[in-house]
Amino acid sequence: MNQYFDNVNLPSNIREYETNFLGNIFKFKVDNGVFSKDKLDYGTRVLLLNLPISKMHGNVLDLGCGYGVVSIILSKLINASFDAVDVNRRALHLTEMNIKLNKTGGINCFESNAYDALDKNKLYDYIVTNPPIRAGKDIVYRFLREAKEHMKPTGELYFVMRKDHGAKTAIKDIGDLYKTEIIAKEKGFFVIKCFFD
Ligand SMILES: C[S@@+](CC[C@H](N)C(=O)[O-])C[C@H]1O[C@@H](n2cnc3c(N)ncnc32)[C@H](O)[C@@H]1O
């Protein structure tokens, strides 16, 4: 089965869409073989709308960045430095284009299988992710569980997951690592905050 993260043989067809987020207009170049190629994903929008934007700063990791929506939108709203990583090279190329298109900066975009290519000594204030459900449970749980090793003691992990994609089971599974709080429930999407004591 062709999945959006296994796209090398898909013909490319780059196009662009526009979206309004909190009164700011963003443009995104998209292509076949990337996640949510026609519009800003609803779950990602719910995630972004529920982040503590007014207090966010420091180092932010956009894990599974796709074509860059999370870090590009946040980079216009907060003063922070971003690492944006994905395994999908087509998506990473689009992220580079979208950074220029939206005339924003402070985003370091590179290929990484989950946390593999990250600097082990760099700790993040925020890790933000809409995890790749279609990649399977192992990788999703790796995203969520390994975040712990890359967060400052005051760091926070935020993720979005549909209830019917196992959000409650995921919360249970990571309960040994973090305190968790469901900070939003909207149309079946849960936004979950994970932090330390
Ligand atoms: C649900 S999409 C979210 C994309 C983007 N953040 C958004 O919200 O529109 C999940 C992303 O995770 C990426 N991904 C899948 N497996 C990965 C892995 N092992 N390491 C890093 N990223 C991965 C996919 O390529 C995809 O871009």
Describe the structure.
By secondary structure, the chain is α/β, with parallel strands linked by helices. The protein has a single domain (41-195), classed as Rossmann fold, CATH 3.40.50.150. It is built from 5 helices and 9 strands. It has helices at 42-49, 69-77, 89-101, 137-146, 167-173, and strands at residues 15-21, 24-30, 57-63, 79-86, 107-111, 124-129, 151-162, 179-186, 189-195. The protein has a 7-stranded mixed β-sheet with strand order 5-4-3-6-7-9-8. The chain has a two-stranded antiparallel ribbon with strand order 1-2. The protein binds S-adenosylmethionine. S-adenosylmethionine binds next to helix 2 and strand 4.
The main pleated sheet reads as:
7 strands, mixed
- In the CATH scheme, the class would be Alpha Beta
The domain count comes to: 1
- The CATH architecture term is 3-Layer(aba) Sandwich
Strand content: 25-35%
Overall, the morphology is globular
Report the average pLDDT across residues.
Answer: 95
Query: How helix-rich are the residues, as a percent range?
Result: 10-25%
